[in-house]
Amino acid sequence: xxxxxxxxxxxxxxxxxxxxxxxxxxxxxxxxxxxxxxxxxxxxxxx
Length: 47
Fold this sequence. Notes:
By secondary structure, the protein is α+β, with helices and mostly antiparallel strands. It has one helix at about 40-45; strands spanning about 15-20, 25, 30, 35-40.
């Protein structure tokens, strides 16, 4: 998936990943490679 624009979590860094769970475009800081999802989805799963 090609991702462009700003991270939809921090709205500061360039988005480089697209979350398959929620569709957010996120930067490297908000991507969890081990889970394959954005940090917002990972945090939501832990609650």
